[in-house]
Amino acid sequence: MEKMIEVKNLSTSYHGQEALHNINFSFETGKLIGIIGPNGAGKSTLMKSMLGLIRKDEGEVSFAGMNLKEARKQIAYVPQRAAIDWDFPIIVLDAVLLGVYPNLGVFRRPKKTDREWAYECLKKVGMEDFSRKQIGELSGGQQQRVFLARALAQKADFFFLDEPLVGIDVTSEELIMNLLKNLRDEGKSIFVVHHDLTKVEDYFDNLILLNKKLIKSGAVKSVLQPELMREAYEAQFSLLDSMGVFS
Amino acid sequence: MIAFYQDLVNYEFLQKALFTSIMVGVICGVIGSFIVLRGMALIGDAISHAVLPGVAISYMLGINFFYGAVVTGMLTAIGIGYINQNSRIKNDSAIGIVFSAAFALGVILIARANSSIDLNRILFGNVLSVRSSDMWMTLIIGAIVLLTVIFFYKELLVSTFDPTFAASYGLPNKLIHYVIMILLTMVTVASLQTVGIILVVAMLITPASTAYLLTNRLWVMILLAAFFGALASIIGLYFSFVYNLSSGAVIVLVSTAFFLMAFFFSPKQGLLWRTIRGKKKRVIVQE
């Protein structure tokens, strides 16, 4: 049981309306896990309530035997791109450097070695040539890579990415997925909120299929079943069917 | 100019005025940078107005008006948050309701408290009447504000830029928000003498916005904002002394002039260069 990430009886509500009802799942660590489901299914909500970013009504989350408080320093979270103020006066390297903050004490400043580490992380996402640019000057895919570099800088064991592949170019998408797979091979656990169903089989080891409640969690193949997808996507299903997602 | 310098050497009241204005310009620029980046300009305006009843109550109780001002300033911040979270009233309306009520209450209390308080002086400031005690208070407030920003720069930066990320590693965003509110109230109190309640919001927002147009780094923005705030205060004091004008109004207009220069001529964000670059691009496309 030590090496599991577990969610038990998790329920969350928004303005008095239940957004997630009684979610249960558990996965081995060291997997790349996609969270899928239709719009408004509560994918981001699930991620945020696992990380204590929104208050849950009830439920327990454990990360390899640790509760959230104990695991916090080992968690890297990448918010949705839309949640960031891209006009903020910060350059790329400094944005990546934020990734070392969680492990610095309150009064401690980042040192030269921290800067070098941030630059290393920037190299891993192929963005070192942009280190002096203001973050708003980058394309969507480049911005996402910078935020992935910040997550790398955290030296975390658990990664949570909210819609990292939305609205980005193909090169960035490939680069990001390769990096995530490498991290997985190093034994890191990665959760990704995702809504494009076409490539889930290539991208993930496991899936969580949601629509306000848990429809199914487990290996990709066991989740990508027509009847389960129909249950989750209801109205949208006929469209997906015609796109040949399950052929 | 030379006459002003001689007066500065000769008159202690002018030295106090100069020192106080520079200090106020600096701390307004520093806190203003965070106010601008966090989109809290309206709240800044609200809190500065809400300081008025606190000042009146302090006079009634015979205590330093700093205490009353901080209490009513904070009550306003909490009141706005409470209405916003517990009803469908939107944030800007909640701000409007609470601060105008506090301000109205302040006007009545001032009239009742003591006929010797000059409402006009509190509303618009008069830097030339700064007393030693005011100057010391400004210095202490300035020290608190600057030390807080220096010590917690990292936390302020990350919670301003990406609050969700900050929360994900356990940074207390709400606490940081209220700390900024307290600093804001203190800065407002310090500014009462130089620019007054009504115009303090301009000192918070205008120099910081000017700096925002000129740099891509937060610490540079803070330093520039402090510099513009101080410079506007010095120039404003000069004109106000030489031509006998309202100090607050002159200081605000000087900082507006800085803003307009940055708005048109900033190398990166300025309207002028943007237009020129735009034309060049168009020419290239046409070729």
Could you characterize the architecture of this molecule?
- The complex is a heterodimer of chains A (247) and B (287).
- Chain A has helices at 43-50, 68-71, 92-97, 112-124, 140-153, 170-185, 200-203, 220-223, 226-233, 237-243; strands spanning 4-14, 17-28, 32-36, 58-63, 75-78, 158-162, 189-193, 206-211, 213-219.
- Chain A is α/β, with parallel strands linked by helices.
- Chain A has a single domain (4-243), classed as P-loop containing nucleotide triphosphate hydrolases (Rossmann fold), CATH 3.40.50.
- Chain A has a six-stranded mixed beta sheet, with helices on both faces.
- Chain B has 287 residues and is mainly alpha-helical.
- Chain B has a single domain (2-286), classed as ABC transporter involved in vitamin B12 uptake, BtuC.
- Helix content of chain B is 83%, strand content 0%.
- Chain B has helices at 2-10, 12-37, 41-61, 65-85, 91-113, 119-124, 132-151, 153-161, 163-168, 173-191, 196-212, 218-242, 247-265, 271-286.
- In chain B, α1 crosses α2, α2 (12-37) runs antiparallel to α12 (218-242) and α3 runs parallel beside α5.
- The longest helix of chain B has 26 residues, at 12-37.
- Chain B is globular.
- The N and C termini of chain B lie far apart (54 Å).
- The mean pLDDT of chain B is 88.
- Chain A binds chain B through residues 51-53, 69, 72-73, 75, 77, 79, 83-85, 88-91, 94-95, 98, 101-102, 104, 106-107, 109-110, 134, 150, 160, and chain B through 37, 151-152, 154-155, 157-158, 160-162, 164-165, 167-170, 212, 215-218, 220-221.
Compact overview of the structure:
The complex is a heterodimer of chains A (247) and B (287). By secondary structure, chain A is α/β, with parallel strands linked by helices. In chain A, 34% of the residues lie in helices and 25% in strands.
